[in-house]
Each structure stands twice: as C-alpha cells, then as structure tokens.
Design goal:
alpha+beta; eight-stranded mixed β-sheet; 25 helices; seven-stranded mixed β-sheet; single chain; 696 residues
Length: 696
C-alpha cells in the first residue's frame, strides 16, 4: 500500500474532515484564541526557517503539524459559519405570512400531499435566500408546479420539529445538514405561479431531458413494474416504484442497482472505455480518450437529473481518471481522497449524508480488499475468472459497507453474493438495451427487437430479485449496533487489511487487540439490555401508544390504527426497539383486556387500569373528572376525552400525561385547569415521549 507520506490528499483530508465534523457537532465556531495561537506558531516557524536553518531540520515535523491544525480549524469554522448563516436567515423569514419563492427541487409525491423544497427570496439585499420544505395538498393546480417556477404563497413558516421519541429518525437534523430549517403547509388557494423562466439552468435542462426519456420508457414498456425499474435504473427517478418492489430489492441486497449511483456510472465508463481503448497508447490520443470519457460520464449525469448520488460518483470517477493521466503510476487512494476533499469544499455537510459515506466505503472496500480475495484463486479460463472477479468485488464492497449499513438500517442481506451475480450483469444489459431503445427505437427495423430485449431483461431482473427476496432467511433484520461499535469494527477492518497487505506485524497487534474490545462492548450492551425495565409513552400525533419493557421482552399497547399500521411503528418506535435489543413485541389493542405473566414480567390490563411490575396506570378517556386523580396511581394518561369536568379541585400523587391522541382544544382546556390548580403535567407532543425507568 505504500508509505503514508505517498498519500498527500489522504493526509489533508483527515484533519479537514475532522474539523467539519467538529464544527457541525459543536454547532459553533472555534474560539478566536486558537486561530491567533496557530498564526503565532506559523510566524515563529517562518522566523526559525529564516534565521536558524540548521535548527529547522530538527523540527521538520512542525510544518506538518501546523498544516494539520490549520486544516482542522478551517474545516471547523467553514462548516459552523455556513450553518449559522443559514439558520439566522431562516429566523428572519420565520415571522412573515406572504413569501416569494423559487422551486429548487422537483415535486415528490407523498400519500396526502406533494413535497417540494423552496428557496424563499430575501426581502433585502443583505439577507440570504432561505430553503424551506413545502407540502402542497394534492390538487390539479399543484401538479402544474415545475422545477424553477417562481411562486407567491401565503403560509406560516415553522421550524422543523425535533424527534419526540427515543432513537427516532432525526428529520430536523437531516434537513438542517441540507440547509433547510423551515417547513410550511400550503393550501391550493394560497399560492400562485407568477413566473416560469424559459431557461431554468443546467439542473432544469437535466430534468427536462429526464422527463423526455421517461415518456419514451412509458411508451415502450407496458408493464408498470418494469417501467418503474427502468425509470429508476436509467434515469434515477424512483417515485414510480411500489413499496413491494422497494422491499424486495432491499431484502435481496439489490437496492444499489435501483438508485443511479457508482455502479451505473461505472458501467457507462466501462462501455465508453471499451470503445476508446485504441486511443490509450499515445499521449495525445490518450488525452482525447480521457476528455471523451469524462464528457460521457457527465452527459450521463445530465440525463439522470443530476441527482446527488450520480454527481458524487461522477466527481469521484473524474478525479480517478484525471489522476491516471497526470501520473504514470497514479495512487488510487489519493484520487479518492482528492474527490472527497473537493466535495467537502463544495458542501461541508455532505460528510453526514449516508449515500456519501456508503459510496466511499464501497469504493475503498473494492480497492483495498478485493485484490486480497481475488489473488486467492487463479482462474485460467475467461468465464470462471469473470465470475470470480464479480464475486470478489461484491464481497469487498459488502464488507466495506456492512457495518455502516447495519448501524443505519439494522439489517443484512444474506444472499448478496447470489444477488450481485445476477443483478450486476442484468444492470449492464438494462443500461445497454435501455439506451439503445432511446437512440434506435425510432428506426422501424430495429424498434421491435430492441424493445423486446429491453422488456425481457427488465422482467428477468424483477423476477430474479423477487425470488431471491422470497427465499427463507433472505435478510437478517433488527441487528442493533451503536456508533461506537461501528467505529471499532471499522478500525478492526482497517488494521486487518493493512496487516495482510503489508505484512506489518504492528497492525496485526492492533487488530488482535480490538477483538476483545469488540467482545467486551457486545457483552456490556447485552447485559444492559437484559436488566432494563421501563414504561414508555410515545409521542405520536393522533395516537396512543405505550411500551412495557422487561429485559428483552416488551408489550406494545396502542390504539387499533397504530397496531395495524407497520409503517407507523417502523417510523416512530421500531428503531428504539432495535437499539434496545428488544424481541418482537406482544401487540395489544387498547380495547382489549389482557393478563400476561412470565419470568420478570407481570402485566394486566382491565378496562382503564393497567398494572405492570409493581406500577399502576390509569387511562382516562371520554370523560375527565378531577376525582380520577385521587386514585393513587403512578401514572395518569389522559387520551381522547370528549367532556371535561372542572368544577372541583383535587390532589394527585402520580404523573399526569397528556398523550398524542388529544386534540389541541382538549389540551388547552386541560392545561388551563391544571395551571389553575398548580398541578404538574407533561404534554408529550411538546416535551417528547415519557420514560419511566423502574429498573433502578
């Protein structure tokens, strides 16, 4: 792998990325004194170079340290200042009712609305444009909105809410890293398109091209499932995919073929490179070859709507190809680091995007781990060699991304090798036949055979993925992994790979030392899961839902709508179940009375009374009377009441909870009464889920 000194961009990337992470995590600029200190050290070093050149040799490590510190604090300030400016601008727009805005992303269809990202134009020349999420109710007027349109709308901009439940996906932070702090809900009668520019920029041109090719796909592909796969794989538009298709591809470990990303850009590169191979052997023709390759890659990015994933892949491949031309023996790690450095300069928050992390880890896995597997077997014949190469690439990419994928998604596709052996060649065929359809389908003699091949390759892909995802145990789901555990696993992978590649015994010692550390971490986590005992009341708007946890067992008590909607459970509470190491819950409808006794768990629900491991809860519904609070329970959960009696006062001993099923007017009346009698309460839709730890 070579000395660390041979990777200049790798050396620059680490401190700069660390600074960006620090700036975003701490959410403030570094203290000014640090910058003065670094500047002073630079000044002292320059004086030492001028006046004491001999001493300078003894301190030759000092400029490296100063460069690292400079990059660290540059990244820190760059990220912190960028987010601070965007947030301050958002706060100034927060109070207005009427807004002039430009649509900066095409509309995305949701279940009850269309979502878009708006760039709200500033009131004064000193302000910055502000990004906001906008939800438009489905309407014929809404469908007419296009990328680049200028609209005027009436609506109250609201700060995006933080997650209210433990381990719930933090959508506020996710959007903050995209520079979006606000959201608004717009009724059909409250907005008007006031301008549609004839030139919408390169992005607008790209989306128009994609729309044109999407019409061609719909024209030639009759099966809606096949058309959805073709649109996703060729054009990067996955809105037509059904939830069943997405689930099948995810379970089979083939989601990477649905989203236009590094795989697709790589196939385009290999196809172009095969045609241009004859230009490689002379200096000037090689420059022409490289120019055509890079142009072809970015033309493909233009066709696919310039999605973030394809832009990342195109940037990375551009740096790798350029590195091959600039140096006789290019260093692949240096080119990868240079592309990442460039992307972080354009957008420091990209470092937190899951797609960015997985893309670079997959490439690093292929570059560093694949040769180790490939060299284990010497295949003399063409077909076995190609199969073995594809298997080792898939295995290396999976090893590189698996820990992070488990951390984010808590699942692992068991048959990923089988899947990739089938879907990667099929992906190439879909790209070839798809683009042939775009180019040649208007020629009468060629239309029928090309479209026939295109349709059948798509059908084979759909059937193959469906069959693999339907195999027993196709996916291991619900795998808990903390961020620290993920980091330790990656350190183990890194040290092991370097040790095998370089035969350096020091890295073997580092790798072996991490194995007991991982074991200890796993043991501690498992013990914590086994002794946990708590009651949770989740904050889910319009619903009542509670968890009664004892060890790894738990009972999920909720209203029927929540019980029968796996999507709601997945979004709000499933991540907490996985991170807490819980088994599948016992689901109980609020309408039902149930008694459950097992080791360490005692649960009984009878009408409005709940008893769990020595704690009692009173569910107050339909009618609220202050006398209900005299019953001496640990928790009083008030839900979906129709009538409130406030003609008497009382003293309560337990915690009062206003749950998510209550309407705003109901909560208002209750809060007025509680404040009048100085009673403490918790509104979980404002304060977040209530957790009672009864194991202590």
């Amino acid at each position: 792998m070579g000395s660390y000194g041979n990777f200049p961009f790798v050396r620059l990337l680490f401190p700069f990325a660390t600074g960006i992470v620090s700036g975003i995590s701490i959410n403030s600029s570094a203290p000014e004194g640090i910058y003065y200190g670094v500047a002073s050290f630079w000044g002292l070093y320059m004086l030492m170079v001028l006046f004491f050149p001999r001493i300078n040799y003894s301190y030759r490590w000092l400029p490296g340290l100063l460069i690292n510190l400079t990059l660290l604090f540059a990244g820190w300030n760059y990220a912190a200042i960028k987010l601070k400016k965007e947030k301050e601008s958002s706060n100034r727009h927060h109070l207005h009712n009427y807004h002039l805005a430009r649509i900066t992303e095409p509309l995305t269809e949701k279940r009850k609305s269309h979502m878009a990202i708006l760039e709200i134009l500033p009131d004064t020349i000193n302000d910055l444009p502000v990004k906001s999420l906008a939800y438009f109710l489905k309407d014929s007027n809404t469908v007419s909105i296009e990328y680049g349109d200028y609209i005027i709308f009436k609506g109250q901009l609201q700060v995006i809410s933080p997650p209210l439940n433990p381990k719930q996906f933090d959508y506020k932070r996710f959007m903050k890293l995209k520079g979006v702090f606000l959201q608004t809900f717009v009724l059909p009668e409250d907005f008007k398109i006031i301008k549609r520019p004839s030139w919408k920029g390169l992005k607008g041109l790209s989306l128009d091209i994609r729309k044109h090719f999407k019409k061609k796909i719909d024209q030639h592909i009759e099966d809606p499932e096949n058309a959805a796969i073709a649109t996703a794989m060729l054009l990067g538009d996955d809105q037509s995919l059904s939830s069943e298709q997405q689930s099948s591809f995810s379970s089979a470990g083939a989601m990477h073929v649905l989203c236009v990303s590094g795989l697709h850009v790589g196939i385009v590169y290999l196809l172009l490179n095969a045609f241009l191979l004859g230009l490689k052997y002379r200096k000037w023709t090689n420059i022409i070859r490289v120019a055509i390759l890079i142009s072809g890659i970015w033309l493909y990015a233009l066709i696919t709507g310039m999605s973030p994933s394809v832009m990342r892949a195109s940037t990375m491949l551009t740096f790798i190809i350029s590195g091959q031309v600039m140096r006789q023996k290019p260093n692949i790690y240096n080119s990868i680091a240079a592309s990442a450095f460039f992307l972080m300069i354009t957008d420091p928050c990209i470092i937190y995007q899951v797609g960015f992390q997985l893309s670079y880890l997959a490439v690093l896995g292929i570059v560093s781990i694949q040769p180790l597997f490939y060299n284990l077997l010497n295949c003399k014949y063409w077909l076995p060699e190609k199969i073995w190469a594809l298997m080792t690439v898939s295995l290396a990419a999976q090893i590189g991304t698996a820990p992070l994928a488990i951390y984010y998604f808590h699942q692992f596709p068991v048959y990923f090798l089988l899947t990739n052996l089938i879907v990667v060649p099929l992906s190439s065929l879909i790209l070839y036949t798809g683009f042939s359809t775009f180019i040649l389908a208007n020629i009468a003699l060629l239309e029928v055979p090309i479209v026939f091949c295109f349709n059948h390759v798509l059908s084979i892909m759909n059937i193959a993925v469906s069959k693999i995802s339907g195999l027993s145990g196709s996916v291991i789901a619900g795998i808990p992994m903390s961020g620290f555990q993920c980091l330790v696993v990656y350190l183990l992978l890194t040290f092991t790979t370097i040790w095998i590649s370089t035969a350096n015994k020091a890295y073997r010692i580092f790798a072996l030392a991490l194995i007991p550390a991982i074991t200890i971490l796993h043991t501690i986590t498992k013990k914590q899961h086994l002794i946990q005992e708590k009651i949770l009341i989740y904050a889910i708007k319009g619903h009542t839902s509670m968890d009664f946890v004892s060890g790894r067992d738990h009972i999920f008590l909720a209203d029927s709508a929540m019980i029968n909607d796996p999507h709601l459970q997945s979004f709000h509470v499933e991540n907490h179940w996985i991170n807490s190491g819980l088994e599948k819950p016992v689901l109980i409808d609020l309408k039902n009375d149930t008694t459950i006794f097992k080791k360490g768990l005692s649960f009984k629900k009878h009408e409005g009374f709940i008893f769990f491991n020595g704690k009692s809860i009173l569910l107050i519904e339909e009618i609220f009377s202050p006398s209900d609070l005299l019953t001496g329970h640990d928790l009083y959960v008030i839900r979906d009441i129709q009538h409130i009696k406030t003609n008497q006062s009382t003293i309560r001993t337990g915690q009062i909870i206003l749950d998510g099923s209550l309407k705003n007017y109901q909560k208002y009346k209750l809060k007025e009464y509680f404040k009048k009698d100085s009673l403490e309460f918790r509104d979980i839709m404002e304060d977040g889920a209530y957790v009672m730890d009864i194991g202590k």
